[in-house]
Design a protein that fits this description.
mainly alpha, 2 domains, globular
Amino acid sequence: MLTLSRLLAASGSLWQGSAAFMLGLCIGSFLNVCIYRIPASRSIVSPGSACMSCGHPIRFYDNIPMLSFLILRGRCRYCHVPFSVRYPLVELITGLFALAAFLQWGISLTAVINLVFIASLLTITCIDLDHYLIPDVITLPGIPAGILASFFLPAMTVRDSILGTLLGGGILLAIAWAYEQIAHREGMGGGDIKLLAMIGAFIGWKGVLMTLFVGALVGTAAGGAVMLRTGSSMKLKIPFGPFLAIGALTYLFFGDILILWYWR
C-alpha cells in the first residue's frame, strides 16, 4: 500500500511538473510577442500574430509553442521565410524556468509571483540584447509590483523590499554619477538603474548585493572574452541588463545556499 501511495504521489508530481512546463511554454510564446512589440511601441494584445515577412496571420495551429516550429521546420507556412530560432528557444527557457519554479516552491502564490518576475527578466534581457534598451513600461510598474508582492512572500518583508529598491537604484545611480564626473561621458543608462531597483523590490537588499556581485563577475568575464575575440577596445558597448538578470536569478534560486556556503 505504501508503494502504491508513493507511485500515485510520483505520478501526481510528474503531471504537475509537466503542466508547469507547458504553462511556461505558453508564457514564453507571449514573451516573444512582448520582446518584438514593446521596443516598437506596439500593442502586445492586438493584432494577432503574423509573419513578419509576408504579413499573413499565423493560425492557432501554427502557433503552438515549440511544436509548430518543429512541424513547419522553422519556416512560415505561406512564404517559407525562416523564423528566428530564438522563438522556440525563449519558449523552452521559460518552460524550464516554470518547471524550476514548481520544483522550488510547489504550487503556491510564491511560485506564481517569482515566475512573473522571471518572465520580466527574460523579456528585458532579450530587448536589451537587441536594442540596448530596458523599457520603462516593465521596470517602473515592476517596482510597486515587487513591493506589493512582498506582502505575500514568506521570505520577504515590506521593509526588505523597500530597502532593496532604494539600495538597488541608489548604488547604480551613484556609480553612474561618479563615472560621468570622472570620464565626462555617460557610462551607464538609466534603464539599468531602474532595473536594479525593480530587482531589489522583488528580492530585497541582500538580493541586490548578490545580483551586483554575480552580474559584475559574469559581465566582466563575458566582456573580456568578447574583447579578446574581436580585438575591441575598453570602450566596447555591452548591455548590462542581461548580467543583472543572471545575478538576480542566481540569488532567487541559489541565494540562501551560496550565502550559507560563503559564511562557512
